[in-house]
Write a structure and sequence with these properties.
Strand content: under 5%
Number of domains: 3
Structural class: mainly alpha
Distance between the termini: 81 Å
Shape: globular
């Protein structure tokens, strides 16, 4: 041992001493945090009144128990731990419901307890700090946005008013199919369905279709936006690995997407404001989402003010919601016919 220390501290090996010290210090620090994490997770205070939970490991929690088919793993675990089970994905506790009766109690009987939304880094990047109704925390701001959506954006009268848009775009699609059939030219149904979906969503939310130039790029980025919203960020569950989102380019990709959509929607809003100032505004029955939101902002019709950021966040979410429901309808038609 003394020989080893002498050789380590000798003049020729002195440069490796800082690395040796750093390695030993890191091992002790890691051991300290692992012991502290294990003790906090197994103390009686943290286990009080909590649902059954499978054993977990430090830092990762129960993530290691999930297979390539998580729903099968959760189904198997529910047989052992019951219909109400607590898992940990990193530091985030996740309540797993595996029965209809328990789900009814969570969604209906005790809905206020479970009404809040968890924090997600991707929502902060793409949705202006979670300022839309789908991702903001439960509270007064959420209730205000809900009343705005129910009364002014997604009311039954306004949804029915968009029947004209749906019929016009459907007739245009049928006409295109007839022309291709007449000239015996090939037809890409996937591309056609995507086109009519985007056209209806854009006309309802933004007032017109966007197919050429920057508008075509908008459709591509909008699909990328939907994919990024569903992307899992490891930093949300294991904070000390948040740097991986920067290294693999995920956060940079999301910021680039958010900047493009922000510039595009800002221009759309400015166009609507200019059109309204010139007096070229359709009646309320045929106005789009941007017109409705600008009207609410101007008249303060709901009793509280909404800023430009909230308007842009609502437009993004509403536009993606319309896309989702139209795609669901197209899939349903495919199953029926």
């Amino acid at each position: 041992m003394s020989t080893f220390l002498q050789s380590s501290l000798s003049q020729e090996n002195f440069s490796s001493f800082p690395m040796l010290f750093f390695t030993i210090f890191s091992l002790f620090l890691s051991l300290f945090f692992i012991i502290k994490y294990w003790y906090s997770n197994n103390s009686s205070a943290t286990k009080k009144n909590l649902p059954p939970s499978p054993p977990r490991i430090p830092l990762l929690g129960n993530v290691h128990q999930l297979s390539l088919f998580p729903y099968r793993t959760l189904h198997t675990l529910s047989h052992k731990y019951g219909p109400l089970m607590l898992l940990y994905f990193g530091k985030v506790p996740v309540l797993v419901i595996s029965s209809a009766d328990t789900a009814r109690k969570v969604m209906k009987t005790h809905d206020l307890v479970f009404a809040d939304r968890p924090y997600r880094k991707m929502n902060d990047i793409l949705l202006y700090g979670s300022k839309d109704m789908a991702s903001c925390g439960y509270g007064e701001y959420w209730r205000q946005l809900r009343s705005l959506s129910v009364l002014h954006i997604l009311s039954n009268k306004r949804v029915q008013s968009y029947r004209r848009v749906r019929e016009e775009e459907t007739l245009r699609m049928i006409k295109h199919i007839k022309e291709c059939s007449f000239f015996a030219s090939p037809l890409n149904l996937t591309e056609l369905c995507a086109t009519i979906t985007n056209d209806i969503a854009c006309r309802v939310a933004l007032g017109k279709t966007y197919r050429e130039g920057k508008g075509k790029r908008f459709q591509e980025v909008l699909l990328e936006f939907g994919e990024l919203l569903g992307t899992v960020c490891i930093g949300d569950y294991i904070p000390w690995l948040d740097w991986l989102g920067k290294v693999n380019g995920l956060y940079g990709k999301a910021e680039k997407c958010a900047n493009f959509l922000d510039d595009f929607i800002e221009q759309v809003i400015e166009d609507h404001i200019s059109r309204r100032s010139d007096g070229d505004v359709e009646n309320e029955e045929h106005s789009d989402f941007v017109d409705a939101l600008l009207s609410v902002q101007k008249t303060n019709a709901i009793g509280f003010s909404i800023d430009r950021t909230a308007i842009k966040a609502l437009i993004l979410v509403c536009n993606n919601t319309i896309l989702f429901y139209i795609l669901q309808f197209i899939l349903w038609l495919g199953l029926v016919f």
